[in-house]
Amino acid sequence: MALKPETDAVSGVATTGHEWDGIKELDNPMPAWWVYTFYACIAFAAVWVVFYPSLPFVRGTLGYTGRSDLSRVMEAERARTEPMLARIRAATPAAIAADPELRGFALAGGRVAFANNCAGCHGAGGQGAVGGFPSLADDDWIYGGSFDAIQQTITVGVRNGEHPDARGVAMPAFAQAGLTPAQIGTLADHVLSLSGAGPASAPGAALYAENCVACHGDRGEGNRELGAPRLNDQVWLYGGDRAAIGRTIANARAGVMPAWGSRLDPATINMLTVYVHALGGGEQ
């Protein structure tokens, strides 16, 4: 149906012909300033298309691209930070930590590198997570918490198949090695007793001596050379209740960490080392 514009009797302004529930739409013109601004934007857009990349496959007469601008900014930033990075690269993590200027720079850079590469597994604050992601903010270390130990772990990683010196050895899956479910339960009870979370038993102690002592030690003190975690504290990678420990004994665990030495610059490795050491659990 065709619209029927008419003049509004109250305002004297023509209507558009639209009406909703007795309410008529007035055909007021746009303010002149708005119209001129709109036209100016159209003209500006036309000029922009000529000079800057605005359409597919059209780079603009100035040859500007966001990628080239980013490259320029990044190159300028590299030139600005390279003198300090060279000092970081040439120093040991311990020497960096002992120099207030280098330490401040390393902590700032290490915080960014940690967020980009490590926080996904170890948490934003290095708190770790149940499921095989160790906390880096306590004093419980699988491979050692000294500067050298942390640097080595970051560089070569853990059971990754990338680096010939990667940390870690395989733990047997004792369900496949011949232990029965009852024996696994008894062994789990003994492991709990090592941290004071349950009573010790002669059968459990015998199973532990036969299957676990070689890696985890007589008292569950662990072995950093092998990457065998301590069992006599309350820190657990995969859960510390009887069921979780039983699953670990039965099926084994084999956490993996990348070898960051092939991915990150030595300066970044050093900054990460200093940062992780400073999270709260570093050793001398």
From TrEMBL:
Keywords linked to the UniProt accession: Cell inner membrane, Cell membrane, Electron transport, Heme, Hydrogen ion transport, Ion transport, Iron, Membrane, Metal-binding, Oxidoreductase, Repeat, Respiratory chain, Transmembrane, Transmembrane helix, Transport
PROSITE patterns tied to this protein: CYTC (PS51007)
Protein name, as recorded: Cbb3-type cytochrome c oxidase subunit
Function summary: C-type cytochrome. Part of the cbb3-type cytochrome c oxidase complex.
UniProt cofactor note: Binds 2 heme C groups per subunit.
Domain (Cytochrome c): residue spans on this chain: 105-195, 199-280
Keyword Iron: yes
Organism: Paeniroseomonas aquatica
Subunit (UniProt): Component of the cbb3-type cytochrome c oxidase.
Transmembrane segments: 33-52
Pfam family, one: FixP_N
Primary subcellular site in the record, as a coarse category: membrane
Localization per Swiss-Prot or TrEMBL: Cell inner membrane
Family membership: Belongs to the CcoP / FixP family.
Pathway: Energy metabolism; oxidative phosphorylation
Top-level taxon: Bacteria
InterPro entries: CcoP_N (IPR032858), CcoP_N_sf (IPR038414), Cyt_c-like_dom (IPR009056), Cyt_c-like_dom_sf (IPR036909), Cyt_C_IC (IPR008168), Cyt_c_oxidase_cbb3_su3 (IPR004678), Cytochrome_c_Oxidase_Subunit (IPR050597)
Gene: ccoP
SUPFAM superfamilies, per the entry: Cytochrome c (SSF46626)
Keyword Metal-binding attributed: yes
Cofactor(s) required, per the database record: heme c
